[in-house]
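HUMAN:
Just now I want nothing more than another pair of eyes on a protein record. I would be glad if you read both lines and explained how they fit together. I have put the entry right below:
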Amino acid sequence: MSEAPMTGTDDKKPRGRVLVVDDEVELMRALCESLTDEGFEVRGLSDPALVPDALRAGEFDLLLSDLMMPGTDGIQLLRRGLEIDPHLVGVIMTGQGTIQTAVEAMKAGAFDYVLKPFRLQQVMPVLDRALEVRRLRVENVRLRHFVQRLTFESERYRIVGQSPAVRKIVQMIEKVAPTNAGVLVRGPSGTGKELIARALHGNSARRDKPLVTVNCATLQESLLESELFGHERGAFTGADRAKPGLFEVAEGGTLFVDEVAEMGPALQAKLLRVLEDGHYRRVGSTQEKRADVRVVAATNKPLEAEQAAGRFREDLFFRLNVISITLPALKDRREDIPELIAHFLHTRQVGRGLMTVDPPARAALCAHDWPGNIRELANVLERAQILAEGTTITPDDLPETVLAGGTSGPGVEPPIRATSPDDLDRVEQHHVADVLRRHGGNKVQAAKALGVSRRTLYRLIDKHRLAAEGP
């Protein structure tokens, strides 16, 4: 039996923590030494029986295990490891590279496998992708804990982010959701206004009743009136039967009126009456109905300007604006972009399992100004998953508009400037140079920010002929 003690670089934060398990002692020790040189914190074991205690004693990101060992195998070790740490990511080393071996390892929860003998350069890309998967798993749990006081109908419709703006929104939802107060949700298109309506409904006493949505911009005025309030048979040409409106359908629940600024003056008056006393009439009817419905309205227009221009009723504006939640543009909450990436890759997979994003592509996503906001980010990630060759999204999979870059904000990766998806050397050079500049030439801090070892950073500095001042 032999063990390689925990080793690491002198960086404050290692690239990742790896537990290496292989009964071939010399191979195990050599691999531990090589991974340490690459910036990992590593512990090596040649006795697989010691693995469970090692996992309980220290938090490891990755389990890099041989497949065939005396008395057990890497698949059994990984299954046991996942019982101890559900976020553990396993990579299997094997000299028996058959399809059956790969299938068994994947079924057991392995991220990937590598064939012996191998060179370190062949293993590093696999470990980097595995670390990204680990980060995504932990990040998704952290996001759930942040908003655990709120109830969401599914992971897909969860509010994501840690920025001050998002925290303020979550706190407002906590206060307002249990009441019957109407809410006006404001913000640019694509910022998630319907998501807020769902959160308000899902955390109210009305959660067991319907949540009904109507978009005022998609219907003509006459059709919108019928859609909202219903109509009687014969009320207009083609009305061959009576039809309940959305206020009736949403009885006891919540009605989300999107793009409320597109509503005409006459319909605004009818909406105001419902908000004031709950009364309305179907089109073509003289009979009064009463609605027990909470109204959440949304707009991407400045209602103050619309009201001043005479396009929106002043009394309706004040009635809607009692409780207002304003959503920022995505470029104003850039620090949330990495978490949003993790969220969309987890909840909107295209069929090949959880995918990851390499550092240059992540930097481009963080730097883009996102004129289409969160909706645009979700669509870009869906497109990238479809175009990606493997399980990692690279700059080649992103639109040129995203690679063009934007102004970076605090706490996110710097902007990328590239003329085409093929300009990867230029992207890498700019990224490394900018990180070095932001850290005053301190290569320890820069390497940590880049997620590489100092030795790798020196190679990048030499490759791109960058200034090498600083420790």
Notes: The mean pLDDT is 84. The CA atoms of residues 330 and 429 lie 26 Å apart.
